[in-house]
């Protein structure tokens, strides 16, 4: 590797910078170096030890060895450890945010918010693990008794994305550990530093060796690691957040071992604004949903359906807000929108905007690359006059582009919103209680935001339907993904 000068920010606790993988409680060097770069500037940050199939197998063995003792601990003891881990995250929030912004690009204020969001899952499942209750079922045969127990599924694996490199780890790992499972994590190749710092803090919280493994890897070796975990009969659960295409592949690879899957896949969220909506509230919700993390979230609004009577007023106010957004590197003062993660993401956003304009859409705000700021910057953009035949209306953009379509009737809005293979998140604004109930029930999505653009929290289940996957993360439902049900029939 010719790159030697690092652009990493100075940390208050330099020992949080880990560049080796974690297997069996030890920091392990890899054989395939992984270079990490700042998406804002392209500057080299660090070279991380990349792992492969051999280390993936070693992590399985370590997790299998650690499982009996971890499973035997009381839920209270496991919860106390998760709570200490959460406190470690909060204590080192500034350093974690600095690492996250450096390798992922999001504004520093958003990164700090993600640290607290990540800690909330540890807090929630520290308590929820103590509420895994069984049942005693009255039997029709008076000589028998039925007990229903919930027990940990065993060794688990998680493959996490780059857009929320800390929160997506704790959202998967916290319920698994609380349930008594051991877990291995393969973080995204773009953002391993945040994941490894998180693992360091887990060790400081007292997590035993083998209970948590973290294996950074190059893109090519990530495929090899995933294949090992999918095919292993020891691994009984796989959780993945990412594209629908990769989710389908992982599901096929897991089929021979019939392991349980939690798949949080692609989204294409509609955002509906009815004539009776509070326009200012709808615009605020649109800003929260669409432009957070530069539009690089699986639940961000992608298609804005605005009823004809309110369309022009909504567009005018939204255009003012979008034009005022500050674009720049995430560590710069007052920045609200950072860079896209890489050139591939930039090319997709560019192609969606170009396609829409070529087919007759109007550019109200933005629409330009900003090479003067860095390699991966695209202006916050607002398109109007969008139609259903444009790519931006049928594909997930994953960038800071809002596409507005006009509709006339409630039935039309529901039809447009549901006309997609995806079913993750949806949003709508109305002050009519009857309409609120009708539309919330009719939207074919795993999550619905009614008069809000922010829907995710640790205490509520998160997940989709249709091609957006299955399984839930968060809420009391999230821990059920890591529990098997056992029926015990007793002759008395």
Automatic annotation (TrEMBL):
Molecular function terms from GO: succinate-semialdehyde dehydrogenase (NAD+) activity
Keyword Oxidoreductase tagged: yes
Domain of life: Bacteria
Keywords in alphabetical order: Oxidoreductase
Pfam families for the chain: Aldedh
Domain (Aldehyde dehydrogenase) ranges: 27-488
Transmembrane feature ranges: none
One Gene Ontology cellular component: cytosol
CDD domains: ALDH_F5_SSADH_GabD (cd07103)
Alphabetical GO biological process terms: gamma-aminobutyric acid catabolic process
NCBIfam families: SSADH (TIGR01780)
Family per record: Belongs to the aldehyde dehydrogenase family.
Protein name: NAD-dependent succinate-semialdehyde dehydrogenase
Species for this entry: Inhella proteolytica
Lineage: Bacteria, Pseudomonadati, Pseudomonadota, Betaproteobacteria, Burkholderiales
